[in-house]
Specification:
With 195 residues, the protein is of the alpha/beta class. Helix content is 27%, strand content 18%. A hairpin with a 4-residue loop joins strand 14 and strand 15. Helix 3 packs antiparallel against helix 4. The chain starts with a helix and ends in a 23-residue tail after the last strand. Pfam families: Hexapep (PF00132).
């Protein structure tokens, strides 16, 4: 995919996820999450070359100062990644993020070890992480999973799950038989149902 096609895809991703996005030019000019992702792509390419690691870190820190979003240049990020209201987002060096992932503000994809190993989370395709959530360590968040606001996740989650609480507990998104939600929102209002 060419550079301009990727930029158009990124802008379309923002517009499809944020009803406040009024036009392509506005998205390109004022969406800090998009700016952080674009800068990360450049820094990540630089990070692959030993002689460019230091400039890659400098670029990531300049981007952090400009956007409030810190993405280590070593992190691996897929396509159509969207950071909504990105202030305070931190993504560690060995984090791996699949396609069609969405993070809200204040999310941390952090480590629990100082060892030079895989120490940050892996988010599979289609994961949504609510505001203020912390996902810590080399855990895997399964495809299509939603992590609730302010949850603290320190264990793997299966695909198509909802993880909420501190520490996070996991439940399936749908009932086993009919594929219906386990709880009827009209009978019980749980904020986690709206993520």
């Amino acid at each position: 995919m060419g550079l301009f096609s990727r930029i158009k895809e990124d802008i379309a991703t923002v517009r499809s996820h944020d009803p406040a996005a009024r036009g392509d030019l506005e998205v390109a000019l004022v969406y800090s999450g998009l700016h952080a992702v674009w800068a990360h792509r450049v820094a990540h390419r630089m990070w692959r070359h030993d002689r460019l690691k230091m400039p890659a870190r400098v670029l990531s820190q300049v981007t952090r100062a400009a956007t409030g979003i810190e993405i280590h240049p070593g992190a691996s990020i897929g396509r159509r990644f969207f950071i909504d209201h990105g202030m305070g987002v931190v993504i560690g060096e060995t984090a791996e993020i699949g396609d069609d992932v969405m993070l809200y503000h204040g999310v941390t994809l952090g480590g629990r070890s100082l060892a030079k190993v895989k120490r940050h989370p892996t988010l599979r395709d289609g994961v949504v992480v609510g505001a203020g959530a912390k996902i810590l360590g080399p855990v895997e968040i399964g495809e299509g999973t939603a992590v609730g606001a302010n949850a603290v996740v320190v264990k793997d989650t299966p695909a198509d799950a909802i993880a909420t609480g501190v520490p996070a507990t996991v439940r399936p998104r749908k009932g086993p038989a009919e594929g219906k939600p386990l709880v009827d929102p009209a009978e019980y209002v749980d904020p986690a149902l709206w993520i």
